[in-house]
Every structure is written in structure tokens, then in C-alpha cells.
Amino acid sequence: MVRVALIQHALADVSGLRSLEAAELRACSTRLVDAHEGLLRTAAHQGAQIACLQELFNGPYFCAEQDDRWLAIAEAIGAAEDASEAGPTVKRLCGLARELKMAIVAPIFERAMAGAYYNTSAVIDGKGVLRGRYRKSHIPQLHPGFWEKFYFTPGDLGYPVFDLGFAKVGVYTCYDRHFPEGWRQLGLGGAQIVFNPSATVAGLSEYLWKLEQPAAAVANQYFVAAINRVGVEGPWNIGEFYGSSYVCDPRGQIVAQASRDRTQVLMADVDLAKIDEVRRVWKFYRDRRPETYGER
């Protein structure tokens, strides 16, 4: 049994961010990390073994506009097992994970080198060790408000699975969820829990929020933990981030769900034995025919 925490956070008024300079944007990012630290401590106090934050947690969803001043809040992450080259956010979270004895999945804006930036989740174990990262693979450039190709390079690290001792976990970020191939790769890699940190608004894809992750959980026979932002973020006002974070089991049943409209630490107890139970009934991995699928 693994206790999981999902943290959805509503930002305070951020309408003034459009006029702020780089140093002020970095200070704003630090304040958001401060706020999330309190929520992570709440999760640990409630017995969480692992907590996942929302997509790009230490900033507003700045992809609502195209402005390279946001590059100022991008940070290095560092190499697996060595966070010495990491930026302040990852170093701080490594220390916090070690103190709380709780693993943390932290989605941030990564600066890999000058001119190369990624939408990345750092995975930190309960000893405070940076175990690695997942870089978002599928990058949207959609209707006004989701200009991610302006900022992010498509991920180049594949679909890693991280063995944290108590569970094997993977990450698949927001827009990724529309692509079944990555979900399957994570299952083939041995993932038992896949986190899907997101920034998604009401309207176009809200009905998919209730369908895609449970369907992926069923098709791949593991747990899926979906996290969404909350509220309307000015000055862009691209829509309401509708929260509703949840955890679903390998049968696609939702076992815990957060509110739509407020900051919340959602707790869920995940019974990993259910994975074997379901796979004994539905032998999807036995009956796959990859040799017939081909590559297109």
C-alpha cells in the first residue's frame, strides 16, 4: 500500500506579472515554491510517501503568451544522483524531501543549456536524491493561450520509469495524455503509478479529462494520478483551470478526487497488489501483437 499526495494550487492574483522584470519574476517563482513547501509539509504530515505537484508549479502558466522574458525563471536540474548543478528550486526540494522522508515529483521549466529549454519533471526520492527527470514529449501549439512550442524543446529522454523502492513510477505531462504510445511505453517499462501533472482549462478538452486517464489506466493496468491547476490566471484569462485532480486504479475507477475550485492536498492509498490482480484477469501484455503494428 502506497500513500500518494496530489497537490493542486490556485495562484493569487498574478495580473501584474506582465510588467515585471526578470529579477521580479524570479522572486515571484520563489514565493510560489514557499507556498508549495507548506502544502508538501501537509502531505508528509498526513503520511504521504510521494507527492506530485502541478505542471510548471513554480510559476503561472506563462505559455498563455509568447514572451522570452519568461526564460528568466528556467532553471538547471542537474544529473541523476547529483543535484550539485541544479538550480535553487530542485536543490531546495531535495533538502525538503530528505527532511520529510517523502519522494517528490516536481514539474518545472528546465534550462538545459543556452537555447534549449524543456518542460520537465524532476523525480526526487525520499532520501533527497535526484533520481532523474522526464521531459515532456508532446508539445502543443494550439488555440490562443497554449503557445508551448515557443518555449519548449520536445523531450529527448524517452519514457523513464523510476524505482523508488516502495513503487515504480513514471511521469507523462499534460498534452502527452492524448498520445497512447507513451502510456504503453511506461507500462512496458514496469511503471506501477504514472503521474500526469497538467495545466488544462474548461471547455475544449474538459470532457477528455474524465476519459483519457482512466482509459490509459485500464489499457496499461496501472494506477494513474492526474493533477490539474486551479482558477483563472490573469492577465491572460485563457479560461478556468478546473482542478479536479484524481487517482484512478487499474480498472479505471476513481479512488480519490479533489475539488474543482480550490487549493487542495488530495490523499489516496494505492494498493499495488491490485495491478497483479487485474493482470491475472486481463492478459493484455501477454496478448499484445507488436510485430503486427508496425511503425507509421
Give an overview in words.
This protein is α/β, with parallel strands linked by helices and 296 residues long. The chain has a single domain, classed as Carbon-nitrogen hydrolase (Nitrilase/N-carbamoyl-D-aminoacid amidohydrolase). The protein is built from 8 helices and 14 strands. The chain has a 6-stranded mixed β-sheet. A 6-stranded mixed β-sheet has the order 6-7-8-9-12-13, with helices on one face. The protein has a two-stranded antiparallel sheet with strand order 10-11.
Low-confidence parts, pLDDT < 50 over ≥5 residues?
none
Q: What's the number of domains?
A: 1
- Which structural class do the helices and strands define? alpha/beta
Helix-residue proportion: 25-40%
CATH architecture: 4-Layer Sandwich
Give the strand line-up of the largest sheet. 5-4-3-2-1-14
Largest sheet: 6 strands, mixed
Distance between the termini: 40 Å
Number of strands: 14
Q: What is the count of helical runs?
A: 8
CATH superfamily: Carbon-nitrogen hydrolase
Supply the CATH class. Alpha Beta
